# Entry
Amino acid sequence: MSTKLNWIRDELASLKQQNLYNTIRTIDSPQGAWIVVDGKRVLNFCSNNYLGLANDARLKQAAHDAIEKFGVGPAAVRSIAGTLSLHNELEKRLAEFKGVEATISFQSGFNSNGAALPALVGKEDVIFSDELNHASIIDGARLSGAKIVRYAHNDAEDLEHRILETGDYRRALIVTDGVFSMDGDIAPLPQIVEVAERHDLMLMVDDAHGEGVLGRGGRGIVDHFGMHGRVDVEVGTMSKAFGVVGGYVAGKREIVEWLRQRGRPFLFSSAVPAADAAACIAAVDILEESTALVERLWDNARYFKTEMQRLGFDTGASETPITPVMLGDAQLAQNFSRALFENEVFAMAIKYPTVPQGKARIRVMISAAHEREDLDKGLEVFGKVGREMEVIQ
# Structure
């Protein structure tokens, strides 16, 4: 028997022994407040479907109409024969929505970082990166070949210290998440902008969890802090609050044009299908027409978080609808998640390497799709399981 894969078998066995093995559950329904997971109807506290748009009738109709007109696949990369009129329309609409000069769309938020970072900096340059930035930023930074200097989480003073102590470089880029997906806290953007402007450095913000959540009608963290025109690059995703799939980079027209020339996912990976692009446009329409869904999301989040804290749970440093239920131990988090599922609540354990060792948690994702009775059901189950496991009194 071949031994060349023994190391993989050993690593998998080690993950299982450490309770770090990731078991993938299977969904057999549309995303919504309640979904079918592994054949069981459960309350959905897991998905990033912030505004409940993933199964919205208007988005589904737009996708259906686009399939009838354009078919199911683009059959090419954007730079050769894959750019549809829908892609151009989506980029125009996103630029208007974000209040920027231009946008360029990609297959995902992950790909957007993989396109932007290597195109903006290279081996002679440096990236100043928040120590808790998302994996897509980390991977994009590595692909760029630039020197990576990490600064303390959400600490503009430490960022400036790192800039001052860093040696010669050709160009520099500061990059931060807008909302940090595991803790739900918000980057101190005004202070970071001041540092960037003081040292004349480019600034990039990944607003994957801020789009559709922060700002006027969900326009994101730059709008939330009134920083328009002072952030060079905004990265967003269409797969969370917008309910579809895809990503984009927004900012100055010359930056967007440069990414059309050098953004590798744009040049070498097939375009987003017409159905997805059309559904994304429909989502932008909805957010431009009304702020009701964003307001409902925040009402639900405030209610749930307040009641969880009243029960005695530690919800960390979250300032957004992301609600981490801090448990610490990975095995406890795994057992807690299984007990929730047995009681018809779907909320997965988050553990190392997604979060640091000793900071395992259940991450609850509140949605505008939840009714008050859904939230009360979740609170009842969390309370029951928490008392049984002696997490709360």
